[in-house]
Amino acid sequence: MDSLKAKFFRYLLLCVFSIFFIVPFGYAIYTSLLSKADIGNLVLPGRWTFENYRDIFVNSDVLIWYKNSILVTLGILVGNLIVNTMAAYSLARLNYRGRGVVFFLVIGMMMVPYQVMIIPVFSMIVDLKWLNSYQGLIVPFLFQGFLVFLMRQFFITVPRELEEAAEVDGLNKIGIFTRVILPLSKGAIGTQIIFSFTGTWNSFVWPVTLVNDSRWYVLTVGLNTLKNRYFEWPNLTMTGVVLLTVPIIIVFLLFQRHMVQGIATTGLKG
């Protein structure tokens, strides 16, 4: 009976906290469906309109911004899955000289504020003539120290007996990694996808620093220009918020099970 009460209060507490996250997004959706005449009023669904979404798509380059955001996000995501995962496996399982130093540098990168690196990285991008380009938006973020650390902690939990059995069967290190380790890492990889996607999709400081041509704007930068243009119309501003947030919600719903599994197992010695 006590466990039932504890479970009830736990779920009640979760429901209360969830309201604080759902209500703002619900308000954004509601406001995005209001006409200019209904702003600030309580309006029934019969008077809701999608005119704001039509205005955004017709009177701006939001489709180009969506395309840029999708290409940049996918480029960084694929790069992260390859580079971070392989780097993490080498730090967790391979024995080579200087491995501890490399891991120390990865940890050190996590401690350096992102803003500190913007100026030197920007100078390198200028020297490479990568302003207003996909490579300038993607390449600096193909390696993420936190995600390397996350994947390394998971790989440490994988029993070594599995790798030893694979070696007996004749697999080399690459075969063990691709055919044994990766299939067991779906939870950690799902977690990495969510972190990498949300971090890249919501990125603003670097894209607004690197890009000065509207044809290369990502969605966050482009919608910010709309906010400046329509600052007196909250319905149009909230329309942009919804357009930016929906893809994140979709990705989270697709990979939330893997994220919970990855967080629950990462760092636990198996």
Number of DSSP helical runs: 13
The CATH architecture designation is: Orthogonal Bundle
Q: Could you describe the largest sheet, including whether it forms a barrel?
A: none
- Give the SSE order as H and E letters: HHHHHHHHHHHHH
Question: What Rg do the Cα atoms give?
Answer: 23 Å
What is the fourth-level CATH superfamily?
MetI-like
DSSP strand tally: 0
Low-pLDDT windows of residues: 266-270
Write the layout of secondary structure elements.
Blueprint: H1 2-32, H2 51-59, H3 62-93, H4 99-111, H5 114-127, H6 134-138, H7 145-157, H8 160-168, H9 173-181, H10 186-201, H11 205-210, H12 219-229, H13 234-265
Task: Sum this structure up briefly.
The chain is mostly helical.
Provide tags for this entry:
single chain; mainly alpha; MetI-like fold; 13 helices; globular; disordered C terminus; Carbohydrate ABC transporter permease
How would you characterize this protein structure?
There is one protein chain. The chain is mainly α and 270 residues long. It has one domain (60-265): MetI-like fold (Orthogonal Bundle), CATH 1.10.3720.10. It has helices at 2-32, 51-59, 62-93, 99-111, 114-127, 134-138, 145-157, 160-168, 173-181, 186-201, 205-210, 219-229, 234-265. The model is unreliable at 266-270 (pLDDT under 50). Pfam families: BPD_transp_1 (PF00528). It is a multi-pass membrane protein. Residues 66-254 form the ABC transmembrane type-1 domain. Belongs to the binding-protein-dependent transport system permease family. It is found in: Cell membrane.
